[in-house]
Structures are given as structure tokens and as C-alpha cells.
Amino acid sequence: MNSKFSFTTVIWREIWQRKSRLISGLLTITLGIAVIIGIESVTSVSKEVVKKKLDLLGANILVLPQATSVDDYYSADIDAPTFPEEYVERIATSMLPGVDNLSPKLSRRIKVSGYPIVLTGIMPSNELASKPIWQASGLMAADLKLACATSSNPSDTTRLDPSLKRATIDSLAATDVWVGSMVAERLKLATGGGVTLEGKKFKVAHVLPETGTVDDNRIFAHLHSVQQLLGTGSQTSAIEIMGCCSAISDGLLGKLRNILPDTRIITINSIVNTQIETNKLMSKVSLILLVIIVVVGSIAIGNYMWANVEERRKEIGTLITIGFTRGRIYRLFLTKSLILGLVGGTLGYVLGTLAAMVLGPQLAGLTISPIPIYLLWSLIVASTIALVGSWYPVYRAARLDPALIMQET
Amino acid sequence: MFTLENLTKIYQHRGEEVHALDKITMEIVQGSFVVVTGGSGSGKTTLLLTLGGIIHPTSGSLRVKGASLYDYSSNQLAAYRNRTVGFVLQTFNLVPYLTALENVMIPMLLNRDLEEEPQNRAANLLDQLGLSSRQHFLPRELSIGQQQRVAIARALANDPDVILADEPTGNLDPKLSLEILRILKDLNQKESRTIIMVTHSPAAVEFGTKTFRLDQGRLVA
Ligand SMILES: Nc1ncnc2c1ncn2[C@@H]1O[C@H](COP(=O)(O)OP(=O)(O)OP(=O)(O)O)[C@@H](O)[C@H]1O
Ligand SMILES: [Mg+2]
User: Fold this and answer.
1) Is residue B81 a part of any domain in this protein?
2) Which of A173, A288, B85, B86 is most buried, taking the most CB atoms under 10 A from its CB?
3) Helices B144-155/B174-189 angle, 10° precision
4) In a domain, B94, yes or no
5) What ipTM was reported for this prediction?
């Protein structure tokens, strides 16, 4: 027994006495909220993951010749037309904030022992950093990195998705190559071995781990060696820039386009675009569901409260004889539906969160933890549903004519 | 206690007027045991509910201790129902999911001026009506006579001056009827409460100190 008998006791007692009928009304709210919370939990984690990926990648920018077709960020530079290597210096001397780790590239498809590979010339970072032009401008690569680190968060590299991260190569001798995992496997290459490219012998300095991208089919050599080998002169087919996310949103792309008007500048965002699209879709789906659930839930609760009011007509009459005002009857029923809303919201939150935690890793490969603020939203949405749904039945209960009720006995 | 002058209640029923009460003029003295009789549909329940502050009359005046009842605000009327009068109806109108004790306590929840502790008071009332061992029973677990006694205990919750009873013995066998009538008589004689009781039963009429007879909304005796 309750220690103190109050109106709240009356409401609880009534709810418990008729709990079987309560279940359908409550179930609608609970399941509705559970579905939304489940979807929202997964989506919010997924959004979080995308954001982290973008941050960690430093939102790479790719500078390509105007004529290049761009379908895939990773293969955009292969066999593309070229532009002068001097563009690297143009970017470097412009001292744009947010530009870090410039890396020019030249890629061509060639055959090695009859097997097609992509030969990519790159500039090792130690050579870039010591380029005279960089020193002349009074900036070291390290300074650039430092300036960048404050705005983005590159320290958190542990969660970096390896398939999206490109190896930066610190130093590379003119006769050394780094080979992708697939090339190494096909051509049976191992670290320390040799490989002949276009008639010139190179030493395999390193076999790269598998990335699942076109990089696995590449052989990386020094940019100048590749230029010599292919006879292109001082040309590159792409410049990769590590830029900061915040700088990119501050219009870095536009500034780069001003400096290099005859190029095409794209970002790595396209890589994670599918995931972003999925998230947008999920947000839409959950918004539509929210509307449906508010409508269906309100109808279910309204239905339940209507039946409840009908069933309690005589009781309402009794309460009036005892001294209840209409306002008090109003409050009695509205408090009851508010309790239903709060209970339904809490249960829905718990159920939805549990579902997301169990299904998230299986269906979306995401680890999901409870999002406490969603409890608040669940409670708000569920109480709104309950109050909206029961407004009319309760209004009717309070307006019941006692003269009529009394005649019904 | 009650002064009625030309009290009239007209119901609108499918466009037709039903004169449930037709210019009733009467005086009900404090401390009396009034019995209201009359055929079915003669307006007895309507009269009782009007005296109880539930049905607003169409015209005429109703004064309670000199004050015009239907000039009260709805809150004042609710307080009047809560404290000045207590209802005992034919079907006992107990709240089905509350125990006997809780049913008796509900009117007390609305009464801020109550001096006694509600639970004690409710237990004492049930005790007086011989229900001390049934405090925690739900209405459906009680016999019909016991249910009516709980209803009487609840009518007494806030120590009202008046008990309004609408065929309180209508559903009871003769023996139980007598038991309830004796209780009402005691409330009238020992506690000097005004009792206004609607009844069909000739045996019940005997208990009254004053009898009013209604016929088609009119007072005939
Ligand atoms: N809400 C209402 N709407 C329309 N007519 C009503 C309403 N309530 C009562 N009446 C009519 O008013 C008249 C008086 O009804 P009332 O219930 O007061 O009679 P009664 O004397 O209590 O009858 P009974 O002995 O059968 O209980 C009846 O003709 C009834 O049909
Ligand atoms: Mg009647």
C-alpha cells in the first residue's frame, strides 16, 4: 500500500487495475519511439564516423589538369593530361592558410613483364620540405603542419581507416621503388629485390600493405625518375594537398582556383559521399517515421483514452458528486495520459537504444552507445503524442453533463 | 436549511420541453428527515441533484442557509458538494479500483480544512458502520449491504450537514434496507444531520419526519 494516499495514487491505481487494456496504447508509443531512437542512434554514430574520417584525412584536395575526367578520386591522376611541376611552387609561395603537405604526382599505365600496373612518380616529403623555394618563403613544412594541427585534430590517428589513408613517403632514392601489395604478389616482388621498369632497373625498397584501392596496383618511384623514364619533362599529372577541414570550408578551394585557374580542384569528400547520402536518407526516413508515429500514436492513445472515458462515465459522475470540478477531472485524465507518455517514452528509448546497440554492429558495422539526450527527446515526443491524442476525449470527459450520467445508473 | 421558490427545471429533449421540476416551492428545516416520493419520472432525482449543486435549475431560486446556491462559482459549488452535502445513491457509485478505505478518503483529499488525519478519520467512519475488518477490500469484494455502508461512510467523509440519498435501499433486500434506514435515522437523530431521501418504499417513508410527494414535476403533498 502507498504510504500517502493522493490523486496520483488514484491515477496509478486505475492504470494498474486496467493494465491489459493499457498495453495496446502504450505499445504503439513505445514501439514508435523505439524505432525512431534506433534509427537516430545508428545515424548519429554514422555521422560521427564520417566526420572523423574527414578530419583524419585532413580533407585531401586534389589538383588536376582541367581536362581530366573525375570519377574516382584514387584513379583520377592516372593517364591524365599534365601541367608543369612549377605549380607546386606557386601554391607553396602563395602561403594560403590550411595548406599542408603538398605532393606532386605523375602517373602512367605501363606493363611490367606483360602485367599492367600504374607507375606513379612522387616527391618524398623530405625533398619537398627542403626545396629552396620553401626556405625562401621562410616557412618550413613543420610550421605549416603546426598551424594546421590547432584547427583540425590530426592527433587522433588510431581510428584512421587504413584503406583511406595514403602512405606518405618520407624519403625515396632515385633508384628505389615502393610497390603496392597486388603488384608485389603478381610480380613476386619482395623488399630488397629488383624490378625493371621501361628498361631501367629499380630496387624494391618497400612493399606497401593492402589498401583495397587502386594503390595496390601501383609502383611508386621518385617523381623525377618517372619524368625521366617517360620523357615527360618537368610535368605532373596531379598535386595532392593535405588541407585542413576548417580551411576548406573557409573557401580554400576558391583561393586555390584563383592561383591555378587552368586546373581542376576536387576534394576527397566524394569518397565518403555515399555514407553521407545514406545518413541523409536515414534522417529523412526517421523524420517521416516521426510524423507517422506522432499521428498513429496519437490516434492509438486517443482511442484508448476515449474508451477509458466511456468506461468511466459513472466514475466521473461519482467524482462530481464528491466535489470534483471540471478542471480537476481534466487534470486527472491528462495526468494519466502524461504518465502513459512518459512511461512509453522511457520504454521506447530503452528498447530503441538496446536494438541499436545489438543491431548496429551487425547491420552497419558501427559500435553504438546510448545517447542520453535522446531520452529527453523521447519523453518530449511521447508526452506530446499522449497529450495531443487524449485532448479531445479528456475534454469530453470534463464536459460530460452530470444530469445525464446520473440518469444512466 | 433549504428554501425553494418556484424552482423549475426544464430539459430539452429532441426539441420538446420536459418539465422535470415545475415551480416547486418548499422549505426544508435543518435537522429534519425529509422523504421525497412520487412515481417514476416525477422529478425526484432531479430535485435531489438540484439540492446537491449538480443540476442547474432553469428558473426559480434555491437558498441554502440564506445563500442563493446557483449564484455560486463553479469552484464554490464543488466545495459545497464536497463539504456541505454528502450523496448516497441507489447504485453505490464506489470507485471500483480503490479500496473501501480509499473510497472514503477521496472527498477528504479535496478538503484542505480537514483537521483529522484522513486515514484515521476514514477508518473511524468505516468502524462506526461496522466495516473495520473490510478497510482494504475492493468494492467487488464486498457484499451489496457493505458497499452501501461504504457509500454512506464516504458521504460522511467531510462531516456534511446534509445527506442526500436517492433510493438508498432500492437495490437491497428488506433486511438490509432496514439496516441502512436505521443508519440514516441515527445520523439524523444522534448527529442531527439533515437527511433528504428519495424512496419508493412505503416502509422507508415511515422513517421520515416530513414527506413531499411529486407528480410530473409538481409538488402535490
Ligand atoms: N438529462 C435529461 N434530459 C432530458 N430529460 C431528462 C433528463 N433527466 C431527466 N429527464 C426527464 O425528467 C423527468 C424527471 O426525471 P427524474 O430522473 O428526476 O425522475 P425520478 O422521479 O427520479 O424517476 P425514477 O423514480 O424513475 O428515478 C423524467 O421525465 C425524465 O425523463
Ligand atoms: Mg430517480
Assistant:
1) yes
2) B86
3) 20
4) yes
5) 0.92
Residue whose CA lies nearest to ligand 1 atom number 28: B41
Report how far residue B61's alpha carbon sits from residue A12's, in angstroms, rounded to the nearest whole number: 42
Instruction: Kindly state the percentage of chain A with pLDDT values over 90.
Output: 15
For A323, the closest of B78, B89, B93 (CB atoms) is B78
Ligand 1 pocket, residue B18 CB under 6 Å: yes
Contact B165, B196 (CB under 8 A): yes
Interface test with A, best of B21, B46, B102 (most A CBs within 10 A): B102
* B38-93 residue pLDDT tens: 999 899 999 999 999 999 999 999 999 989 989 999 999 999 999 999 999 877 68
Instruction: Please state the rounded mean pLDDT for residues A261-266.
Output: 81
Chain B interface includes A17 (CB < 8 A): yes
In a domain, B213, yes or no: no
User: How far is Cα A77 from Cα A70, in angstroms, rounded to an integer?
Assistant: 9
Instruction: Give the domain CATH number at B176.
Output: 3.40.50.300
- The residues near A43 (Cβ < 8 Å, ≥ 6 apart) are A279, A282, A283, A286
Q: How many domains does chain B have?
A: 1
Mean pLDDT (chain A) is 78
Residue B95: inside a domain = yes
Length of chain B counted residue by residue: 221
Q: Is the whole-model pTM more than 0.80?
A: no
Yes or no, beta carbons of A409 and B91 under 8 Å apart: yes
pLDDT of A268: 63
Q: Is B84 in the pocket of ligand 1 (CB under 6 A)?
A: no
Flag whether residue B163 sits within 8 Å of chain A, measured between CB atoms: no
Three cell numbers at B169?
A: 435501499
Q: What radius of gyration, in Å, describes the C-alpha atoms of chain B?
A: 17
Domain that holds residue B78: 29-54+74-208
A132 in contact with B, Cβ within 8 Å: no
Q: Would you call B109 and A5 a contact, using CB atoms and an 8 Å cutoff?
A: yes
CB-nearest to B75 from A314, A315, A325 is A325
In this model, does residue A50 exceed pLDDT 80? no
- Does A155 lie at the interface with B, CB-CB under 8 angstroms? no
Q: What are phi and psi of A401, to 5 degrees?
A: -80, 115
- Which pLDDT tens digit goes with each residue over B143-175? 988 998 999 999 999 999 999 999 888 888 888
